[in-house]
Amino acid sequence: MKLAPAIRAAALCAAVALVPATTSAIAQVEGHASPEFARFFATYQRIKASYVDPVDDEVLIRGAIDGMLGALDPHSAYLDGAALERLNTMIDGNYQGLGISVQMEDGAVKVISPFRGSPAETAGIHAGDYITHINGQLIYGMDLNDAVAQMRGPAGTSIEVTVFRPGRENSFDVTVTRGVIELEPVTSELLDGNVGHISVNEFSADVGADVRRAIRELQSQATGPLAGLVLDLRRNPGGSLDEAVALSDLFLSDGQIVSQRGRNARDTIYYDAETVYRGDAIPGLPMIVLIDEGSASASEIVAGALQDHHRALIMGERSFGKGSVQTLLPLGPDAALKLTTARYYTPSGRSVQEGGIEPDIRVPQLSDPDAERRNRLALRESDLRGHLVGEIAGRDESLERDRNTDPRFQLTSEQLAEQGVTDFQLDYAVRTLRRTAGVRVARN
After folding, report:
1. With a threshold of 0.70, does the pTM exceed it?
2. E strands, 66-171, in order
3. pLDDT in tens for each of the 444 residues of the chain?
4. What is the spatial distance between Cα 172 and Cα 168, in angstroms, rounded to a whole number?
5. Which of 295, 322, 324, 423 is flagged as catalytic?
6. How many angstroms separate the CA atoms of 315 and 50, rounded?
7. Which residues fall within 8 angstroms of residue 19, CB to CB, at 6 or more apart?
8. How many CA atoms lie within 13 Å of 241's alpha carbon, on the beta-carbon side?
9. Residue 36: partners with Cβ closer than 8 Å, 6 or more residues away
10. Which domains are delineated in the chain?
11. What is the DSSP annotation of 282-336?
12. Is the separation of the CB atoms in 7 and 75 below 8 Å?
């Protein structure tokens, strides 16, 4: 799921009956209901009898369902029609549109992340931006499905979106040409000094196998043994829990990867290494994982597992902090309930909820002049209304100390551009791995 990234787990039940929608059915249930249900049914009857205009049962029941789920947490939702179709489309991996993941926050459309290489990223839309207008029309307060439907359209057509970016005084217009968004979950490249760079853009089907294949391709391209590997999880909003486990297992040979703990025994599951892949795919090879405020859910599972097992050094910015599991529960053939059913924990027992994953070395994105301000003002899980309470004590003070005057991170974006550095976080990670391996590379 691409709106606030959700984990697609196996459905735990078959069809679930909807709340009775007729007056006669309500009368039968009301006699056996608790006082809370009695108030609910009394409200229903008052609306049906006295509202200024006639109201269909479908409108009232859907409103009741949305209200119940809205009282729980930001990630539980009722999906039908276009919303359910959009979820299936995202899972299939291609559609026509802008290429951004968004969610509704207090009536505003919030950009969680533009997909790498998408029209939105090319046009300059960033994680943390708010889209306020589409083609000059205000969309504040609009239903998210309607807003997303307006942003989608045939490839090659253009759309003008008005963007408000935290830290800037005025909003600005961006013209984006829609494209065919073929989500490529894994990309790789061999960098100078035989350092591999693998980007995981989402956790859809077969990500673990795709990364394994990418490692083999990098090894075949290298002029000698690989000097190190950068696993890039920045701006990755998550996806399949199973694929997060598979990717972690690719680099771990023992121990626990993650645990999910729910209200019921069936929702409490422990995932261990050596269940998907045998051994470490690159034993002993130095490894760095890059994360940022857009790394959520499944990305945090991988980063937390590799950090706790000391298999990789985590660099970048603190992650989003979504430590909950959503299960897709069918409600008949054309509707489903996306319901939060568990929290997940790293091997050491840390809850990622609210606090996220803190990098071992905080590396700001100096090549982006707006990055520091945007990260400071970034919306994370802990900022979402109704989020699940996690464990975040003692986080901010240490991060603020690390932010002060680090001599390693004093160059400006203009100075880096003169040196040919367009991605400082990646450049810093690669140079760290080269130093570890004793590789010297001349920069022209």
Report:
1. yes
2. 77-80, 94-97, 100-105, 108-114, 130-134, 137-138, 158-164
3. 333 333 233 222 222 223 333 444 445 554 555 788 888 889 999 999 999 999 999 999 989 998 898 888 888 888 886 667 666 655 555 677 888 878 777 788 888 778 777 899 889 998 888 999 999 999 988 877 788 888 888 889 999 999 998 878 889 999 999 988 776 789 999 999 999 999 998 888 889 999 999 999 999 999 999 999 999 999 888 888 899 999 999 999 999 999 999 888 887 899 999 999 999 999 999 999 999 988 999 999 999 999 999 999 999 999 988 888 888 888 888 888 889 888 899 999 998 887 889 999 999 999 887 766 666 656 666 556 555 655 544 444 444 444 455 777 888 888 888 888 999 999 999 999 999 876 555 444
4. 10
5. 322
6. 60
7. 61, 64, 65
8. 24
9. none
10. 23-77 (no CATH), 95-182 (2.30.42.10), 186-437 (3.90.226.10)
11. STT--EEEEE-TT--THHHHHHHHHHHTTSSEEEES------EEEEEEE-STTEE
12. no
Own/partner long-range contacts of 47-51 (Cβ < 8 Å, ≥24 apart): 48/23
Amino acid identity for residue 170 in this structure: N
Report the pLDDT value the prediction gives residue 149, as an integer from 0 to 100.
Answer: 82
Catalytic residue among 113, 297, 299, 319: 297
Q: How far apart are CA 400 and CA 405, in angstroms?
A: 10
Nearest to 101 by CA among 208, 205, 192, 235: 235
Taking the C-alpha atoms of residue 364 and residue 317, their distance in angstroms, rounded to an integer, is: 7
Residue 442 phi, psi (nearest 5): -80, 140
Q: Note if 308 is an active site residue.
A: yes
**3 state SS of 342:** strand
Active-site residue (options: 73, 129, 308, 423): 308
C-beta of residue 175 within 8 angstroms of C-beta of residue 186: no
Nearest to 4 by CA among 62, 85, 61, 87: 87
Nearest-angstrom CA–CA distance, 154 and 180: 8
Q: How far apart are CA 127 and CA 174, in angstroms?
A: 14
Does the annotation count 297 as an active-site position? yes
Task: Say whether 2 is catalytic.
Answer: no
The tokens describing 357, both together, are 């994953």
Q: Give burial (CB, 10 Å; 0-12/13-18/19+) of 241.
A: buried
